[in-house]
Specification:
The protein is an alpha+beta fold and about 110 residues long. Helix content is about 25%, strand content about 35%. A hairpin with a 7-residue loop joins strand 2 and strand 3 (about 60-75).
């Protein structure tokens, strides 16, 4: 069994992630939440993991969005970043999230 892991440009890969986002956070659910009116930024990079074809639910299983920002701290501009995570609820024997975080860690080091 093999796992496919892609690191892609955030905007260019949105179409691949959109169905996962809609499945986990459907519009009719989000619009009722206190933060439902917020328009979220697209990730700058995305780590995508596809479940293997032999799994009961193949296809995109996990997404880690990587965000880069410039902030002002103590009067100076600094580079900051963050991540956003979303995954399908699957009965998995593999830890997709751990694999995705390993990729992010390898991209940026300690």
């Amino acid at each position: 069994m093999s796992i496919e892991i892609d690191v892609l440009n955030g905007d260019a890969s949105w179409k691949k992630v959109e169905s996962l986002m809609d499945a986990v956070w459907p519009r009719h659910v989000v619009e009722r939440l206190p933060w439902g009116h917020i328009e979220w930024a697209h990730a700058d990079l995305r780590v995508l993991i596809d479940a293997p074809e032999e799994q009961p639910n193949p296809g995109l299983a996990c997404h880690v969005g990587i965000f880069f920002r410039t902030a002002t701290w103590d009067g100076r501009k600094v580079d900051i970043g963050g991540i956003g995570v979303i995954r399908r609820a699957l009965n998995l024997q593999l830890d997709y999230m751990s694999n995705a975080f390993s990729v992010v860690h390898n991209l940026f080091g300690e």
